[in-house]
Amino acid sequence: MNADRRSGRAFVFGDNVDTDALAPGLYMKGSIETLARHCLEALDSGFAGAVRPGDFVVGGENFGMGSSREQAAMVLRQLGVEAVIARSFAGLFFRNCLNLGLAPLECAGAGSIQSGDVLTVDPVAGRIINRSRAQTYSCVPIPDHLLEMVKDGGLLPHLAKKLERQRDVS
Amino acid sequence: MGRTLAEKIIARAAGRDFVQPGQIVTCRVDLAMVHDSSGPRRHKAMLEQLGAKPWDVSRIVVVTDHYVPAFDAESAAILDLTRRWVRDEGVANFYDMEGICHVILPERGHLRPGMFAVGGDSHSPTAGAWGCFMFGIGATEMCGVLVTGEIWLKVPPTHLVRWNGRLGEGVAAKDIMLALCRDVGLGTVKYGVVEYTGSAVAASSMAERMVLTNMSAELGAQTGIIAPDRVTVEALAAAGVSVPEAASWQGDADAIYAKVWEFDASALVPQVAAPHSPANAAPVGDHRGVKIDQCYIGACTGAKLDDLRMAASILRGRKVARGTRLLVAPASQRITAAAAADGTLAALAEAGAILMPSGCGACAGYGAGVLAEREVCLSSTARNFKGRMGHSDSLVYLGSAYTVAASAVTGRITDPRPMLAEKVAA
């Protein structure tokens, strides 16, 4: 996340969106750019071509179930997806999102969002505004220390920054 | 207040007397396992970027199983990079094309009850059958573990799943898990621990117990676990591991569970899960007659020696139907050797099964055996998500090795029990 509040369009999927759909095994050995072009194609063949930086992916229950492959989160970042909003997340995918700098927002109201709705998201306040429907949903706020990691771009840049600080001190 | 087995292991790894669900703790990692897809290929550059080295190579296990054997230039390069990293870092625990990581770990004596471990693969909960707390993580998080030897977690609540009674002839652990995917659901346990218990679990082999903990991933659990007993201790001994305190890793009698689920194994019939979810499970009879192009016995979930023997018990004296192919990829080289020694492989080959190398293969859509558009597969693996085994418009059904073998004989989804009964009669 580059700033604390961002607006974008919603791409809505159902329950149990799986990691094979996000990062298909057939393309796992290739580059992240290639893999991203096939992101979610089993569910919506037009998704990767239509999504633009700043947009949001919205799901139902258990978003990201399946594999540990963190490319499932990486491809969404590669495509510029700002955050994933879902009623609930698979635990492994949730951890991977944070580690890769993609905000996973657990939102009970996710079911009210329709494809194409314009959303403004404030992960610090835990608030999602649906501008197309004049609705506001609350989401589970991401704790400060984890949000800082997400803003840094994930665990690695965050660790690098931390190591840098330690080196400066010593 | 009583503690569950998982809580005891986490407390030990966190250096605390006591932990409770919801608490966030940092744990020392006893063992970190990676494979060719999630491992050096991903973490080598990350470690270099950080200028860091692995914290303890004696605690790292590397297995090549996803891109084996290499099938094109890219997969060959991934394997080459893996071998180079292992050599450069001096990782002794390296298993190159010898089997699937989750099967290799216990087979080569790396697991012992009470262990706290992480794996770069979502089916890492498999180790829970051996009384370990092991869960899957992504490659970036693994890089953090390799640097620090530690990982944080939010202590998960434990769900107790009790299977009373005994499984009937032709019914397997796979049927238990497909029924659980339907009856418990894929996300209900919300990254908690699923602990399996009951007379049906006690009566099952380690290989079958590993199916239960393996498919805990499908239930959305952080991991699955089974308290060690006499069967565990004997199997550990067979793998050359002698742990005097092995059987002492037990939950307390007054442990607090998020929920206790009770099921009757005696009433369970073979299950088949329809595309595109393991939760689409139903008694095999509900899918009877669905025509199958490919039958697949493979992967960490469904190609251990027990599975191969289940298939052989059906296939002896029978043939794979014309118009159907049966692919068998034993889960490890040692399993292949054992199956060759006891005549199991011969029974499969004589029936017309096509033997494949040990590896993850078609289960994850990698390598040989993937499906074309509109093709229908019945598989002993864990996942049938849309497009996972090949073309996004292929169809994958899941069943036990018994059911896959019986269906290979008829070319259609078939209840294995009458074929087994016929054998007994003959």
Could you explain the architecture of this structure?
The complex is a heterodimer of chains A (170) and B (426). Chain A is α/β, with parallel strands linked by helices. Helix content of chain A is 32%, strand content 19%. Chain A contains seven helices and seven strands. The longest helix of chain A has 15 residues, at 155-169. The two termini of chain A are 31 Å apart. Chain B has two domains: 5-264, Aconitase, domain 3, CATH 3.30.499; 272-425, Aconitase, domain 3 (2-Layer Sandwich), CATH 3.30.499.10. The chains are: A alpha/beta (170), B alpha/beta (426).
CATH superfamily membership of the largest domain in chain B, which one? Answer: Aconitase, domain 3
Radius of gyration of chain B: 21 Å
- The CATH topology of the largest domain in chain B is Aconitase, domain 3
Text of the CATH class of the largest domain in chain B: Alpha Beta
Number of domains of chain A: 1
Rg measurement of chain A, Å = 16 Å
Oligomer: heterodimer
Could you provide a short overview of the structure?
Chain A has 170 residues and is α/β, with parallel strands linked by helices. Chain A has helices at 19-22, 32-37, 47-50, 71-78, 91-99, 144-152, 155-169; strands spanning 6-12, 56-59, 83-86, 103-106, 118-122, 127-130, 135-138. The relative contact order of chain A is 0.16.
